[in-house]
Amino acid sequence: HIQGHAHIVSGTNGVTPCEVQVKEATGDYYSGDGGTVLETVTADRVLIATGAKPRDLPFAPCDGNTIINSAHAMTLESRPESLVIIGSGAIGMEFAYVYNVFGTKVTVIEMLDRILPVEDEEVSKLAQRAFKKQGITFHTNTGVKNIDLSGDGGTVTYSPIGEDSKEETITGEKILIAIGVAPRCDGLFSDSLGIELDRGFIKTDAKEVETPTYKTNVPGIYAIGDIIGPPLLAHVASEEAVTCVERMAGHHTFGVDYNSIPGCTYTNPQIASIGMTEAKVKEAGIDYIKGVYSLKSHGKAIATGATEGFVKLLASKPYGEILGAHIIGNSASELIAEIGLAIRLEATVEDIISTMHAHPTMAEAIHEAALGTEDRMIHN
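Above: the chain's sequence. Below: its structure in token form.
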């Protein structure tokens, strides 16, 4: 283990190995130029796994004091009285939920017409209703114009999209920017190395060949995780890393199935999804069936006092192959794994229906949703 900033000097040319300079970690060094070289490391292969960093608003960069990002939000010394969150993806909503529970007055501003916009629309709608009941305020279809730091806290100027004349302001002790992440490759290599990029992300063979090795266009240089682009999830990066290293070693590995990647939002209610949304299924012109099972009818949910939510299962006609699942409610992040296995094995709703689920468990909700695709729900 060497602590410092890595700067890749060269790939391998078949004769000489890759070369990486380790420069002194000063905390503010990002350019890749200058800096004290502590050590030069050589290797036949270099694997880049530097991840991503929170994006800034171009007109209001984070200062770590009033305008903060997700990293700052994890380490605040005290609870802010008020928090304005810009962006309502998984990260924005997780912090909205947590700080609201702490007693902070939370307001969320989202430029699209619903929160959690990558989720199935029915999930987004129920989630917003649930969070509003908990006391979180939302402004959707709303753009941020400015953040003024001249007073106490930050004053955000915003207006409905396309209606600039309807500007309003809101002041928060802290302003959390949660508008996504950008690849973290500052100072990692110079342009002369020639690594090919795609919208700032390092380009590999991950989505181009059936059995990718995660190699870049520079011999000996590989990359995995957020640095190579969406989906930007820790479990995806982990699987890519294992696949990459196993294939470097010449071992057989099944690799990453990019069609069955679960995504979870850790709030209450929890949210989890995998595969296609209903909108995507319709857009693709696929003939499909669906089952939607409300947790209000579910024994385990009733017993635990957590009946808010549903399980939605989408399957293709005529064979019932699973296309996607969308869950909101207690244990959603645990339940989604069953659907991941079903998609991976090309299972059908009949396979789920014919699999006995223990009672009383939350997993029975998957079984009921599968029954629902055939209008055969038992507890409805």
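The domain at 5-44+185-248 is CATH 3.50.50.60 (FAD/NAD(P)-binding domain).
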